[in-house]
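Request: When convenient, would you put together a sequence paired with its structure tokens?
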Amino acid sequence: MPHDQQPGSPATAEAEPAEADDARTDPVPDDELDDDPDDDEPEHDELDDDPDDEQEAATGGRRRLLVPLILGALTVILGGFGTWATVHASSLRAQSAQQNTALIDPAATSAVRAQIDSAVQTIFSYSYANTGATRKAAQQLLTGSAIEQYDSLFALVQQQAPAQKLVVVTTVTNSAVELLTGSQARVLIFVNQQDTRAGTSQTSYGGAMLAVTAVRQAGRWKIENIDTFTGS
């Protein structure tokens, strides 16, 4: 007669291991899987900054701050220089205008023009028949280096005029006082010259521009230097 199996019998013992095996073979949900242990540790490479990088970043920041400061300072300096240059130039122009009485004294300017225009017409007009008279008059109208300058030029006239029977008439067509300071003046003069050969119908015309430096001596303006510019 078969015997009833008692708890803890071998059959029961064999069933338990089978249930344990089933438990071990059941799949584990993905969300219950343990994360990689390395993921729980802080990433020191990302969190910890390199000291050299920090220093470079700080230096770059200071440079970014210094650049606008330097540019701002240069703007102020250049702006100040521009203002100074404008004021200085204006001051120089005002000083020059005050010294050049040709700009503010019409009466004195007219006197210079009249006397220098007359002197130029006299010393550059002559007749082959009496060149000596022109040269003598010139000595009263010239001074300083202009006397020697004129004598050297007029020596050629005295040689050639009689042979060619030249009669020259010089006329001032326009003039302007460029500078007038005290007893000195500079006058720009435009002249026309008419050359005629006596006994013939040959007449020629020419123009020239003169820059005359004049000085006032004993109340009269005399020519001290002559710069000539030939024209047509």
Q: What stands out?
A: Residues 1-25 have pLDDT under 50 and may be disordered. The chain has two domains: 38-99, 105-230. The two ends are 164 Å apart (CA to CA).
